[in-house]
Amino acid sequence: MPSSLKDVAARAGVSVKTVSNVVNGYPFISVATRGRVEAAISELNYRPNASARRLRTGRSGLIALSVPEIDAPYFAELASHIVDAAEQRGWTVLIDKTGGERSHEQLAVAGIRSDLIDGAIASPLSITTADITAIKDTHPLVLLGEKLMRCGVDHVAVDSVAAACEVTEHLIESGGTRVAAIGMRAEDDAESTSALRVQGFRKAMTAAGRPVHEHLIATVHGYYRPDGYAAMRRLLALPDPPDAVVCFNDLLALGAIRAIHDARLRVPADVAVTGFDDIEEARFSTPRLTTIAPDKGALAEAAVDLLARQITGLPPETKPQEVLIPYRLVVRQSTLPGADTA
Amino acid sequence: MPSSLKDVAARAGVSVKTVSNVVNGYPFISVATRGRVEAAISELNYRPNASARRLRTGRSGLIALSVPEIDAPYFAELASHIVDAAEQRGWTVLIDKTGGERSHEQLAVAGIRSDLIDGAIASPLSITTADITAIKDTHPLVLLGEKLMRCGVDHVAVDSVAAACEVTEHLIESGGTRVAAIGMRAEDDAESTSALRVQGFRKAMTAAGRPVHEHLIATVHGYYRPDGYAAMRRLLALPDPPDAVVCFNDLLALGAIRAIHDARLRVPADVAVTGFDDIEEARFSTPRLTTIAPDKGALAEAAVDLLARQITGLPPETKPQEVLIPYRLVVRQSTLPGADTA
DNA sequence: TCACGCTTCTGCAACGTTGTAGACGGCGTT
DNA sequence: AACGCCGTCTACAACGTTGCAGAAGCGTGA
């Protein structure tokens, strides 16, 4: 049913190749011919067949975005920005959710669909340096997040150590005496986001002359509301419960707030809470959430930009880039009742 | 770099077609040959080239999911379920966000990428019956949501009228005397989700012998927290503000709650609030949100199933299906302080 | 006049895959 | 012994596209 170059060629009375040339903007075409071909194209509503084009040229105009979960608001918002940025370059985004499983991440990155996509942007959770180095030279790839910063692949991230440090300082300055952290993952290695945020937390505590009580660093398995809820309940059951909590993402923080409310305590009067990511919900929750707001638009722009550079064939001397994305500490009700900024 | 059938064939000492037959499970292959071919396949790490396959067979293993916004939690959760359901059938999902614009929805459905995808699942906002009928016979398509129920395309939806009716009844029974609704969209036609929910709201009010005050039906432009926030502020500024509000999705409800709290009122003591969709946030918000919970898993299953039936070529006598998905009214704190069920 | 170059256009081959048609032996039946 | 059938395998063409090489027509300068 869809028409091909051949159909257009027949209608315009030229060769298939000439139509191809018109479509691809080859300059040496007479005005008359170009006119006839373009007329035929629109009459037949011709659209190039992407599969055939990909088969011939190796380009599909499709890039993959691989994230652990797409229904986590942070990743959903990020995906939205990336789709926008990709669209501006005429690319379509294929979104792949890995569930954070290494095997799935390997596939996403090395590509069970590598024959369909021109490149991938991945936000890895469990994947290892070896997995990456195995494919980095053959498949255009940009990594998001702090994990695997130094394995020779283009990389976009927020400075987690600095951000965690800043938000911890904020809690201390606002009067937190026993500051806890929620979000360490026992299974993560030292490069992981969670490890870096713990590091920033420790740094701020030490700089302020506060002892770090290990039992106030609550571990989680996932990064969802129920994980934050459970962790906060454990913290509240301690003999010396915290009066301030740094959560490593907004969902953990929102779960923690829910647990605090269920314990008939108030936020921030009894426990101050901070998050990470600045998802939209953080601006509408009760109380509104103090959080670290990375510039997601800039993050998406940078990632797509780096990928574009790889796909279009970068000058060989270009080194893998490490892009640091700016962030802001947004202070809201969950740490300072009056300080609403949004 | 990736190996092709030809490489595998050379290595196994058989013809290209035999390798193709092995890959595709053609039965008449001797054990010895199959063994050699499979060995060669794994030694060369052969993967079929999807573009070539698509070119030859017309199948790509790719389906599109077209939603207005991917960072709206409802759509994100839905997308997640659909990706899971599609994965079980070996399909990959390409997620397309339309922003609710008609032109983009047309493209998504009729397919700027129709040459790449085998079919589409779309959740339309602005598209018209004419747009659909124009392409329904040539492109496998399943629609989500109530809009355009009767245009001869497979369709999966929740009974919005019944659900809106049920949640309104619940508010009346729990003591709401002035019940308002948030979520009508002036620009929507009578088939739209918002119109149907208004209809269910009116039905319940009338059945309970309550007058429907038109100024208590607050209109919105979008379905996000800020829209619910603004609408609720308008309602609270009325001389006879409502003491119960039916919101047409959870985000509107969460925005409304935020507005109520900002007005120094309590939920549900001063104003009871209900949502629609049962996004995860509704189970963790303060207060937890009473809402209509559609069975999203069933919805995704049904949609992918119907699409599969179309793609694999349905028996010609099969009529377009209209699938109604079950839902539950989940009562939580936002209408009954003690009634938490989740 | 002829060689040369430029513009415009064309035919052929190839990308990796699968459908069609058929080749080739071996086996059972007549 | 002849026949047909079945299991196994293969050759060829085609899907729609683009790179390559080159043809045809025309003008220019020697």
Q: Between the first and last Cα atoms of chain A, what is the distance in angstroms? A: 53 Å
SSE order of chain A, as H and E? HHHHEHEHEHEEHEHEHEHEEHEE
Name the pair of protein chains with the most residues at their interface, and give those residue counts.
A-B, 48 and 48 residues
What is the CATH domain class of the largest domain in chain A?
Alpha Beta
CATH superfamily of the largest domain in chain A: Response regulator
Rounded mean pLDDT score of chain A:
86
Question: What's the domain count of chain A?
Answer: 3
SSE blueprint:
Two copies of one chain form a homodimer.
Chain A: H1 5-12, H2 16-23, H3 31-44, H4 50-57, E1 62-67, H5 73-88, E2 92-97, H6 102-111, E3 119-122, H7 129-135, E4 141-144, E5 154-158, H8 160-173, E6 179-184, H9 193-207, E7 217-219, H10 225-236, E8 244-247, H11 250-262, E9 272-274, E10 291-294, H12 296-311, E11 322-325, E12 327-330
Parallel strand pairs in A: 1-2, 1-3, 3-4, 4-5, 5-11, 6-7, 6-8, 8-9
Antiparallel strand pairs in A: 10-12
The structure holds a DNA duplex (30 and 30 nucleotides).
InterPro entries (chains A, B): HTH_LacI, LacI/GalR-like_sensor, Lambda_DNA-bd_dom_sf, Peripla_BP_I
Pfam families (chains A, B): LacI, Peripla_BP_3
Protein name (chains A, B): LacI family DNA-binding transcriptional regulator
